[in-house]
């Protein structure tokens, strides 16, 4: 059996479409599984005016239900007189059967009561009307509405349902909207039509100028732009997110090239591109060097070129660009530093004060960082960067909420034009990096330190006043802030202590009188928060998760050193000696894990192999201290592996759990001492044998 279901409606927002199609597919799969109806495949299609679902190989009927549900033991279900107990009655009731219908089943553990259920499967065609109806009623959207006299809610008013099962109508009704064979084509270039078969639907929908396959529409846009919109030496900037949005705004795409006055090119290119992409959903056209040309591509929801559409979009864009130019020219009338005073009136968070307060705290942490990193020669530029980093938030360009995506970029431009140092300008832009996963990272100390101190103040401040992420709630994007700090530290190879860094930030909050929770408690939570983010970042860098967990379980205070340890272990894991090392340390660790103390009494070393192991362990202990201080982690692993032979002999000839309590404890202390040597760079017991 085949099933075709189409929900026709007024145009829904582009951002709703793909999620709605995913939800309707997942919900139907779940319902079919619950109803024991098999199917071969399921595919969705969609446009702003329709959600379409095609199911192939749908079962003609439900699978028969034949189940045996086990209950409590006979001794629990019946009393000594053979009368059914409350437990037995409760089980029968939960299964929807009479107590006399219960069966006794013999199992290896004895007799148990059981309930046998058998239900003959119904024909799928009888179940589909209610199933499709519930599919519609349960579909949810970020925003829904009611219309006319209707009581149920949907993203936009529903106009029709087309529902066919093997070319027969699946008959159902939702508030006077009845399913049938009718559908509608393109709003302007199509007509209402009726189909006799499922295959006819796919033929007629295309004849009525609707491309229902999202990927096909997307590829049409790209190919039509390549064919019709680009001259020699030009390229169209197609941002993937914008392409998806435009694809979901139209039923039949037709790209048209428009132009704007070249005078607008005096405004920074990024401002113009934001105007086109974010505000108008146009694709900018660049020359071969990536410089913006006074041209753009608009995708029309139509089948051919329209001069009116072209002129209309050119007029709208010109008005947008005129606003951008006005904001830009007004902002340039004052040096960027003049905006800093205004930040005293911009509240960051009610308990943490203004953006200006935040800048002051970040500046103090930056003093610690410049000294720690031995870059005092950059201290002046770093402090100037932090002072100006948020100044563009109160500019006309950003403050008017028209171009919020350009914060940082505009500050950098204004700083340069105000006569600020080039590194300060670059730092203002770079302190926002990374803005999202996979984004570029700051390259100069000004952006690195401004970025770390800004994020750290947000993180420590929010934890300090009790704003802590939970589940999907993270209003101040603290996870992203911590991820950003970890990425910046690793990318810039900063030799820093996270513990000290957090301590410095919390001190500034404490001095400012805004820390509302005990500092030690807050610090502990933040360090654990960083640990989880570091695990995410390092595993995303394709290190083995067990190796990452093993290293960070021991120490993650210095992230760069932690990465070096992970790399050494990763390389060593490819060595045939690795499994021997892991196996050996697990044996040593497991025996001594519950023992405390590493003091070894030489007088209690009875066997020669004990004395040999003792001598070897002291020798290795001294060697690894030197290797670890020199960060020679691969050599450290080789050194501890050199104990393999003597440890193997030890276990072959020594009974650790001796009857003499003193000897036993001394042997456990010896193994505990060795275990601690083994786990200097990682909790190696967490590593899986390769």
Features:
690 residues; alpha+beta; seven-stranded mixed beta sheet; four-stranded antiparallel beta sheet; ligase; Gly-tRNA-synth_heterodimer; EC 6.1.1.14; ATP binding
Characterize the biggest β-sheet: 7 strands, mixed
Continuous helix count: 25
- The quaternary structure here is single chain
CATH secondary-structure class of the largest domain: Mainly Alpha
What is the beta-strand fraction?
5-15%
Overall outline: flat
How would you describe this protein?
The chain is of the alpha+beta class. It has five domains: 3-61 and 123-207; 65-119, no CATH class; 233-331, no CATH class; 336-542, Hypothetical protein af1432; 562-686, Isoleucyl-tRNA Synthetase, Domain 1, CATH 1.10.730.10. Helices cover 49% and strands 14% of the residues. It has 25 helices and 18 strands. Strands 1, 2, 3, 7, 8, 9 and 10 form a seven-stranded mixed β-sheet that branches. A hairpin with a 3-residue loop joins strand 17 (347-349) and strand 18 (353-354). Helix 11 packs across helix 14, helix 15 (445-464) packs across helix 17 (498-511) and helix 18 (519-540) packs antiparallel against helix 19 (545-554). The longest helix is centred in the middle third of the chain and has 25 residues, at 307-331. It is flat. The mean pLDDT is 93. Pfam families: DALR_1, tRNA_synt_2f. Belongs to the class-II aminoacyl-tRNA synthetase family.
